Amino acid sequence: MGFCSGRCTLIFICTLQLVLALERQVFDFLGYQWAPILANFFHIIIVILGLFGTIQYRPRYIIVYTVWAALWVAWNVFIICFYLDVGGLSKDSDLLTFNISAHHSWWSEHGPGCVRREMPQAPGVRTTETHSYITVMGCHMDYQYIEVVHSGVQILVALLGFVYACYVVSAITEEEDSCLRK
Q1: Which residues cross the membrane (predicted)?
Q2: Which residue of 25, 27, 86, 169 has the smallest Cβ count within 10 Å?
């Protein structure tokens, strides 16, 4: 009791990744961020595959998860660069919405402490446009830093998952090899 193998730890990491990915998916849906929605969807599927592979002792599934973890780190580095305007990327572009809408991060309007000042509608004017606010003021933290923190946490957990997945694959294949030699 009290001992947790690498396999147990990887199950915990995959479960944590699922919770974090679902949380991120909700906020990306609220902001109509289509590229992150698709990336999160694939991430959730691959993490479930990795979880299944870990529980069922299937090293091939865990290897797929390991490769995806490396790609997930790269995606989150891109997101960090995007929101910090690094390398010609701009957080004000419509890149994450595939240029099909003018939506941006949900956190840009609803961050901690943010107060939206809405423009009053002119009498007799009916619009279906929901983006009628003028400014967002009083935010305790700019939205791009919230997105960067989200991505940073995703990178940290993915790197832990990568390391433990490599260890579990090694342990499973070593166990299989020792059974074949007997």
Answers
A1: 37-55, 62-86, 151-172
A2: 86
User: What is the structure's pLDDT at 24?
Assistant: 93
Residue 48 contacts residue 17 (beta carbons within 8 Å): no
Pairwise CA distance, residues 8 & 18, whole Å = 15
- DSSP at 141: S
pLDDT at site 25: 94
The kind and range of the H/E element at 170 are helix 143-181
Q: Using only C-alpha atoms, what is the Rg of the chain?
A: 21
C-alpha dihedral (171, 177, 179, 182), degrees to nearest 10? -140
Q: Each residue of 69-81: b (16+ CB within 10 Å) or e?
A: beebbebbebbbb
**What is the signed CA dihedral for 142, 147, 148, 153, rounded to 10 degrees?**
130
**The pTM is what?**
0.83
Distance CA 179, CA 40 (A): 38
